[in-house]
Amino acid sequence: MFDKRRREFITLLGMAAALPLAARAQQPAMPVIGYLSARSREDTPHLIAAFQRGLAENDYVDGRNGAIEYRFALGQYDKLPAMANELVRLPATVIATTGGEPSALAAKAATSSIPIVFAIGSDPVKHGLTASINRPGGNATGITSLTNEMEPKRLGLLREVVPHAHTIGFLLNPSFTQAESQLADMQQAARAMNLAITVFRANTDQEIDAAFEAIAQQRVPALVVGANPFFDTRRKKLVALAARNAVPAIYHFREYADDGGLMSYGLNSCIGWSASIPVKCSRARNRANCRLCKQPNSSLSSISRPPRRSASKSPTICSHSPTR
Questions:
Q1: Total Cβ atoms within 10 A of residue 279
Q2: 63-77, 111-125, 128-142, 308-322 — which is least confidently predicted?
Q3: Would you give the DSSP letter of residue 134?
Q4: What pLDDT, in 10s, does the model give residues 231-265?
Q5: Where are the beta strands (DSSP E) in 84-211?
């Protein structure tokens, strides 16, 4: 099913690339797809492979009948505007963005004419990326997994692992677009569970190290790692620090659990490129009629061992059936 969905998403890219926009009248014969990511090439080889495979299934091969221009910000969001402008100057025929809202917003700010296909974790209307879900309008469309809105659910699942905890830590990237919203959602959910939230902020490698030193000193019993692309690029580091400090932690992508993290709740990040795009969107003559896709299904992934010296026991299951 995911392969079918990925093909539909790539078909949307092809549709966008073929749109007869006057601003692209001087395009060279070989179309160029811009790939703008807030993450890194090293932590997203699965996404890149799925992207290339989907294009090949639709008869688009890099270097043969088109070109893909990659830009990776390595979790440094301030680099994205310049990268987006580079893709516009090429000019790219269509820009695909991944790595969440920062990439999509940078592309949207750089051009109002080149089609943009994004994959984000929150409401695109709220960010001004589209006019609505059913009729995006403008030059941007794509998919939203709403993973940023799952922080309260992750808190509840972590509470089941450490039922006697009165305080839970929350690691937040203050420079992330959704940071304040994530924090507000977490605080509201914590009040409902009669929990206290201790917030640790990190926007650099040094700040991540300092945050875990504070977590250890304060003997924080468990930790929710906030969803954001910068942390994704430091995934192995975060998992290692949580294990070293014997802190049960929950993350938003399965890749964290695959790398040894205790548990995750959210979407496999590969789904970002294979989420369901309505067939009518790929056939629409008017991009404003293309509906965005919301990916409602989530899954729980966990490893079967708790961190050493931790009194908590992790769930013994490896996966949970999709939950709405």
A1: 10
A2: 308-322
A3: S
A4: 999 999 999 999 999 999 999 988 899 899 999 98
A5: 94-98, 116-120, 140-144, 167-172, 196-201
Flag whether pLDDT at 212 surpasses 60. yes
- Alpha helices, H only, 23-178: 45-57, 80-89, 101-110, 151-161
CATH code, domain with 251: 3.40.50.2300
| pTM summary value | 0.76
Same domain for 72 and 180, yes or no, is: no
- Enumerate the β-bridge partners of residue 196: 167
Give 61's DSSP letter: -
Q: Determine the length of the chain.
A: 324
In this structure, which amino acid lies at residue 33?
I
The boundaries of the domain holding residue 70 are 2-145+271-291
Same domain, yes or no: 257 and 275: no
Give the C-alpha separation, 121 to 298, whole Å: 12
Centre a 10 Å sphere on the Cβ of residue 314 and count the other Cβ atoms it contains: 18
Query: Which one-letter DSSP state was computed for residue 294?
Result: E
Identify the residue whose tokens are 């970002």. Answer: 272
Q: Which of 43-57, 67-81, 188-202, 282-296 has the lowest mean pLDDT?
A: 282-296
Alpha carbons 165 and 284: distance in angstroms, whole number? 52
**Separation in Å, CA 304 to CA 252, 262, 312:** 18, 8, 12
Q: What are the angstrom distances between the C-alpha of 256 and each of 14, 233, 321?
A: 32, 11, 18
Residues 7 and 133 in one domain: yes
Is residue 260 classed exposed, middle or buried when 0-12, 13-18 and 19+ CB atoms within 10 A define those classes? middle
- The confidence score (pLDDT) of residue 170 equals 98
pLDDT of 62 > 70? The answer is yes
Q: Which of 94-108, 123-137, 291-305 has the highest mean pLDDT?
A: 94-108
